[in-house]
TrEMBL record:
It holds the Pfam family Cation_ATPase. SMART domains: Cation_ATPase_N. This is Calcium-transporting ATPase. Belongs to the cation transport ATPase (P-type) (TC 3.A.3) family. Type IIA subfamily. GO terms for cellular component: endomembrane system; membrane. Its main location: membrane. It is found in: Endomembrane system. It is a multi-pass membrane protein. InterPro entries: ATPase_P-typ_cation-transptr_C, ATPase_P-typ_cation-transptr_N, ATPase_P-typ_cyto_dom_N, ATPase_P-typ_P_site, ATPase_P-typ_TM_dom_sf, ATPase_P-typ_transduc_dom_A_sf, ATPase_P-type_domA, HAD-like_sf. The chain crosses the membrane at residues 56-74, 244-264, 270-296, 688-713, 719-737, 765-784, 790-808, 829-847, 859-880.
Amino acid sequence: MKWYQLDVESVEQKLLVTANRGLSDKQVGERRKQYGLNVLEEEKTTSKWLIFLKQFQDFMVLVLLAATLIAGLLGEYIDAIAIMVIVLVNGFIGYFQEQKAEKSLAKLKELSAPVATVLREGEWVKVPSSEVVVGDVVRVASGDRIPADVRIAKSTSLETEESALTGESLPVMKHASSIRRDHLDPQDQVNMAFMGTLVTRGTGIGIVVGTGMNTVMGQIASLMVKTKKMITPLEHKLAELGKILIAVALALTALVVVVGVYQGHQLYEMFLAGVSLAVAAIPEGLPAIVTVALSLGVQRMIKKKAIVRKLSAVETLGCASVICSDKTGTMTENQMTVKEVYLNGKHLYVTGDGYDIRGDYFLDKRKLESDFPNLESMLLYGALCNHAQLKVKKGKYFVDGDPTDGALLVAARKLGLQPTNHQYRIIEEFPFDSDRKRMSVIIEDENNRRFVITKGAPDVLLPRTSFFIDESGRKLLKSADKRNIEGAINKMASKALRTIAIGIKPISNRDSFDSALLEKDLTFIGLYGMIDPPRKEVKSAIAECREAGIKTVMITGDHEKTARAIATHLQLLPENGLVLDGYQLNQMSPSELSDIIDRVYVFARVTPEHKLKIVKAFQEKGHIVAMTGDGVNDAPAIKASDIGVAMGRSGTDVTKEASSLILMDDNFATIKSAINEGRNIYENIRKFIRYLLASNVGEILVMLFAMLLALPLPLVPVQILWVNLVTDGLPAMALGLDKPEEDVMKRAPRSPREGIFARGLGFKIVSRGIVIGIVTLIAFMMSYQNNPDNLVYGQTVAFTTLVMAQLIHVFDCRSEKSVFSRNPFENMYLVLAVLSSLLLLLVVIYFEPLQPIFHTTFLGIRDWMFIIVLSSLPTVLFGFTKK
């Protein structure tokens, strides 16, 4: 179907839809069954069997399987079966870890998917783009991604950027008229908008004519979606660490084998012991545990209203030293309320808060009615030059659209004004954008008279104004009148009120729709003074960030005095802190800005283009910068920052795609919570690295020391593998779920160049590992010397001591301080993991059928007292020290 050749009415008829009503729920259900979801086909995912088999392709596991085969050929069937069972259990654990990570990442992708605004049964609703169906009426605005192939039904200065399809980066102006020509390429179908392209300007309404693979995007094979697993810098570091550990482990294992054979042990016995030791020494599960820890941390962040789009952001969050935050909606409630009106040279005061339409207008203490000169006209103009809708849900009013527009609607409703389409018709619109800082509409009233209404920042509107209105009528705007208006602006700004000016201009039916001509020689009507109250939780969040060594910077398009008042109220601006405005920023070179950037806390009257300059200035000073934004023009700064933060409610799809983090509630306090969580995830990863490697060092050293002292093997291969499985897996995973320490937000930000073994971690691993190895060897030597005819008894005591030492040591790993600084029952996952490991140990020792397999025997009360004293020594010795 050549949809571009049909007029809008024909498209409506063919798709059984009307552009002012949309589809019914029944139609949506039927079309979803017919056409499927609005998604591009992905490459087939790896089957679960292949994921399971992948767990056995590790080099050391293959060597172990070869060793098992040799054991079986030599008649050591019990050892061979036991090792096979352990390898299979390890494989299942790896498989479930990988599945958990994949499910978490899939859920994350689903949460951060773009949404579309569609008309369903006369109501505009937001739905995931994947749920858009053929015939849906969609509304798009600057910064949105087009959710499907759409035939434009209404266009207001609508432009889209289609480089993803055509390679042409210049925006294409769109219109709603049909095109009669044949064989047009997509780039020439200017009444169509295509899936995946970006709205760069204006607004539009269209009817969906193609979804999923039936779109132009779906037909381009090179743009087929392929999901790539994200490798974080930390995972990369750990992969490098793994290579080093393999080399070290193989060297030490070879040494153990050579020394063992030299001491008279059988080559086969030492080969199997060496391979088992190498498998135990190399924490092959480490990358999987890191991925699970990251993805579980991401799930916790989602519960706190923060969606992490890139796993690498979790690490970077812990390094953040500056947060550059938008004021409106992030630090404030985003519920603008008109509190003051400047009209006829007088200040009128407005009662009522939020979006409640109850309220009155007062001049001093006198309540005003609609007959007060120019009041009804001013409020009417504000309601007409408007994109928002005031709706009711469960008896409460809410705004669908921009909060500033919503405040103007509420202000009009307080005087009983609710203009309809029958009274006033919008002929043309010149939309607001960050460069123009104003919006204009051409209105035709019921008497066919036309006039332009322009609203915007006072400093933008006043230079375009030649007249003003007061109680006696329209007059020429003189310098003295301008000074009075500027005085009113300053007075409002000093009260932290945001000011919006409104002006009009009568025009004839013959005037061209040229914004440059229409938006000059305006008549100034008045000023709205509105406030967006600060969020209650933001002041404490800023204080916590300051304590954590993180500087908070407010960025706003508001007047400098308004910004200063809000920043002072939030205790963000210190006594010697600087406030810069957009004009001053324009006058500064990058080096001049860099010289003073550390003293600046507030940027006022800035454009999104300024944000990029601010980000780069902070980065020049070595800061790790988190930058928030919502508009399409914020995307470059968000992408350039170290942690781009997009608004989930008010943010455009483009901004979300450029970001690392999406705030579902658009709240500054959520950024603080995400940084807290990011720091904790990194600390938890350090904890289980510390635990795993210290345990592995202990296992290698006990065997090496025994060989050097010409002693029998203190641990048999199957015991080494069992220790690796029982004491490494579950407790290490549980450490990844540890809650943050109390002082995690009282430490300075971590340097991004900090190595994994920084802050004494390397010393902790080696020192604890040596002591664990020594106490295990002492346990073996003493029990074996007391009973030299029973080697199995000595090996059981050594095996139990090693397991117990590691299970007690895991609680020492919970803190950078001492083991006694934290309540062990804070992490019940860890307590349960340790109890599970202990129960499995008891089964191996006391369940008779398993004793010959694991070379164990019964232990008495005295044995346990001896084991507990020895296995507690590593933790007790280092328990009182931070080193």
